[in-house]
Amino acid sequence: MKKAIIIGSGIAGLAAALRLKKKGYQVSVFEKNDYAGGKLHAIELGKYRFDLGPSLFTLPHLIDELHQLFPDVEVDFNYIKKKTACHYFWEDGTSFEAPADLENFAVKAAEIFDEKQRTLSKYLQNSKMKYESTKSLFLEKSLHKSKTYLSKQTLKAILKIPFLGINNTLDQENKNFSNPKLNQLFNRYATYNGSSPYLTPGIMSMIPYLELGLGTYYPQGGMHRISQSLFELAQKVGVEFRFRESVKKINHSNNKVTGVTTEKGTHDADIVLCNMDVFPTYRQLLQDIKAPEKILKQERSSSALIFYWGIKKSFPQLDLHNILFSENYKAEFEAIFNNKSLYEDPTVYINITSKQSPQDAPKGCENWFVMINTPGDYGQDWEKLVIKAKKNILSKIKRCLNIDVEELIDVEYVLTPQGIEKNTSSYRGALYGAASNNKFAAFLRHPNFNKTIGNLYHVGGSVHPGGGIPLCLLSAKITADLIPNTHA
Ligand code: FAD
């Protein structure tokens, strides 16, 4: 039987393991940590449970597809569709419970923001058009194989390019609303891939359709169930996992991969799929080949500072996803991307899974995942920044929600960009690999295959088509499609 080795058990590594198993490979996953899932991990602090990384779940069919590869194997994985996408709050007392449905969103937003319903519906229809006409080119195929450019679908997508807003920034594309709060609300979608709305191209206005049109979901038991269920499935179908075994080198001979060397020994393989971020992959595991410097020099996506707070009270005005907006969004993004610093009036995201899974917090309490967007780690003094950010966040919560939260904090854990890099090897602690702060970003990501070493492939957030759970899952699918079936 042909052997495949996967380096890393992030969501893309797990998806790739299942897809290669289905193709008839003997699959071994080497993981430096003692758990599977990478960024999709969870922690317990006293009686509180927290998802450590992602909190927003879209396109759940991509997970279903993996479970359906092995229809006879039972693994518990269920999710619900949310009626509300997010609760938005501003300091002047405006709040908006955004429905996760295009029509209802347009009706409600028109009322709250005194905007024409027609303008909103047109914007959302445009978002749908952009997503549907380009997904097959940008998200579902390798952009680095000539056959991609020979299909009818690609031709259709190329003909649509003049209407996709790629010559505008997302902010310019969102300027048609008369109320600046709507401009800010739609600008926020740039953060779904770790970019700035003032730099990322207008085509990103397709992202609201993913959430408001195709829906936002919650996995029963929390986000961690996504990675856990795939891990359980992979174990049941015979994928081998070797935890606490960091890969130190990718071995090759005559421009063909031959296996890997870990801290414990050397392992041969017919193919190797690397789920480690491409930057450390070249710098640490492939020191003996010429690295694609142009790709590695690309600007990285934003990172995050997260406070995990057990809160000794519950707040009916909050939902699963809550956003408290900065008064000066542009200054916030300039601080993050230009100055590599934090803004004093940050946009604060509060995720509370105990709203959906009451067992995540003691009775009458809530588990708050409180996150602000930050630059990656460029050597800033994070100890000092954490103290300052906590003060600014507490004050923002007071101004927007009129809650004195500090005295309600029961337990606390803090994750910085440095911590994210330490846990997962993501260069600079970037959440989504390279940023999409220019219109060519989609074409500049690392391909899903290695151009120098045959049978070496790359999956995950730092390669095509990009970061975020759905795109990581698509990277595994695109990659598996490049690899032939093998049956012993
Ligand atoms: P990773 O999760 O980065 O995993 C890589 C794995 O490889 C790790 O387990 C690591 O230990 C292992 N590894 C690395 N080097 C080696 C080595 N040499 N040997 C062996 N093993 C190695 N996405 C969303 O869709 N929705 C969200 O709401 C969202 N929010 C986020 C919030 C936070 C705080 C973070 C951190 C991320 C968020 N993301 C979100 C992004 C999403 O989590 C990532 O894009 C995705 O999980 C990345 O998966 P991956 O497969 O690329 O690998």
Distance between the termini: 4 Å
Strand numbers in spatial order across the main sheet: 7-6-15-16-17-14-18
DSSP summary: helix tally: 16
| Average residue-wise pLDDT | 95
What is the 3D form?
globular
CATH topology of the largest domain: Polyamine Oxidase, Chain A, domain 2
Q: Number of folding domains?
A: 3
State which percent range the strand residues make up.
15-25%
How is this structure best described in words?
A 7-stranded mixed β-sheet has the order 7-6-15-16-17-14-18. A 5-stranded parallel β-sheet has the order 9-2-1-13-19, covered by helices on one side. The radius of gyration is 22 Å and the shape is globular. It is built from 16 helices and 19 strands. It is 33% helix and 20% strand. The chain is an alpha/beta fold. Bound molecules: flavin-adenine dinucleotide. Flavin-adenine dinucleotide is lined by residues 7-13, 30-33, 38-40, 53-56, 246-247, 275-276, 304, 306, 420, 424-426, 431-432, 460-461, 467-469, 472.
